[in-house]
Amino acid sequence: MADTAETLAAPDFSGWTCPAPLRDQPRVVMGHGGGGALSAELVRYVFAPAFGGEVLSGLADSATVSLGGARLAFSTDSYVVRPLFFPGGSIGDLAVNGTVNDLAMSGATPAYLSCGFILEEGVEMSLVARVAEALGAAARTASVEVVTGDTKVVEAGHGDGLYVNTAGIGLIPDGVDIRPQRAAPGDVVIVSGEIGAHGVAVMSVREGLEFGVEIESDTAALGGLVETVLRVTTDVHVLRDPTRGGLAAALNEIAAASGVGVVLQERAVPVPPAVANACAVLGLDPMYVANEGRLVAFVPRAVAEEVLAAMRAHPLGTGAAVIGECVPDHAGMVVARTGLGGTRVVDLPLGEQLPRIC
After folding, report:
1. Residue among 95, 160, 87 at smallest CA distance from 131
2. Is 265 helix (H, G, I), strand (E, B) or coil?
3. Ranges for the PurM-like N-terminal domain (predicted)?
């Protein structure tokens, strides 16, 4: 047996091919923008070393900075969703809600936004106006003000209509310390409602798919919901809006940052039947599908029931549910207990199941 083992040659992988993007890609691939492992590697090995800085190293949805004695949350995001309008929203809504939600996930009260438009030569002015009107309406709904901006135009064929960038600032109340590193064993994991609607809504329009019922995006500004939770307790450990990469990516990022294990009850994760059916047809896992109006909260067990009740009393949290807990075991890993009594690893996605959804 030993002689046989010694004669076996090491496998040669040089001629193998793989349909998924390889982790050592010398060029940017779509997966680098998907919020998964490839995105994390791009930030960790290219951007973070180049930019440096202690604040950036936190890698939260928004940075917490001090200025003139005030604690501010500061965030920026770019939006390249295709198509520009979809059931339940548009790129204009996303540009406001996405940045407002990133600020709110630090416990901040969002206040001001900047807005940059990159327009493609030849795009209809009426389309630009519709997006601008949607963006302005979303800002008013979120109680934030667009105070500065910029416009650039690129040659025809280089802009896909238009892209939008927004940055925002908000004030963090005294006594609030919300960041992914604070997740701790014993914390209860709560999601604010049903997941997966946004990604499926965008894909249904993009690909011309029909599922028997129209699925609308959940895009919404979550600042009011966060304020409701903070009125119950300021001791909220983590908040995260599960956008690119879905709930699975958000939970993995939190587990990695805090060094805890996360155990989900798979059947407790709320997925609307229409989204579940669409994902089954498309071969998708709802836990990896993007959301734009949901949050996941890690709170101490002692206040979990009160937080859950407060969420359910808010219009954007009526479907809130406890879906899991933090444990000291399998640090940095997320696992799900299935309805059949088994356990499966919910890993960080490599790229993204549905690109260009925000």
Report:
1. 95
2. strand
3. 61-172
Integer Cα distance of 193 and 353 in angstroms:
21
Residues near 306 by beta carbon (within 8 Å), at least 6 away in sequence: 232, 233
Q: What is the pLDDT along the chain (358 residues), one digit of tens a residue?
A: 444 333 344 444 344 334 444 456 788 887 787 777 777 787 888 888 888 877 777 777 789 998 888 999 999 999 999 999 999 999 999 999 999 999 999 999 999 999 999 999 999 999 999 999 999 999 999 999 999 999 999 999 988 899 999 999 999 999 999 999 999 999 999 999 999 999 999 988 887 777 777 899 999 999 999 999 999 999 999 999 999 899 999 999 999 999 999 999 999 999 999 999 999 988 889 999 999 999 999 999 999 999 999 999 999 999 999 999 999 999 999 999 988 888 999 998 776 667 788 8
Structure tokens at 186: 């014993």
Sequence letter at residue 175: G
State how many domains the chain has.
Answer: 2
Side-chain half-sphere of 108: how many Cα atoms within 13 Å? 31
The answer to the question of residue 296 being in a domain is yes
> Domain residues for 315?
180-345
In this prediction the pTM is 0.87
Contact 234, 173 (CB under 8 A): yes
- For residue 29, being part of any structural domain is answered with no
Which residues, other chains included, contact 223 with Cβ-Cβ below 8 Å and sequence gap of 6+? Answer: 100, 101, 103, 104, 109, 110, 142, 143
User: In sequence order, what DSSP letters do the residues of 33-95 get, joined into one string?
Assistant: GTTSHHHHHHIIIIIHHHH--TTGGG--SSEEEEETTEEEEEEEEEE--SSSEETTEEHHHHH
Number of neighbours of residue 53 by Cβ within 10 angstroms: 9
CA angle 108, 269, 195 (to 5 degrees): 60
Which region, left, alpha or beta, applies to residue 101 given φ > 0 means left and ψ of -120 to 50 means alpha? alpha
- Spell out a b/e string for 12-38, using b for 16 or more CB atoms within 10 Å of the CB, else e: eeeeeeeeebeeeeeeeeebbbbbbbb
> Do 230 and 315 belong together in one domain?
yes
Instruction: Evaluate whether 269 touches 192 at the Cβ level (below 8 Å).
Output: no
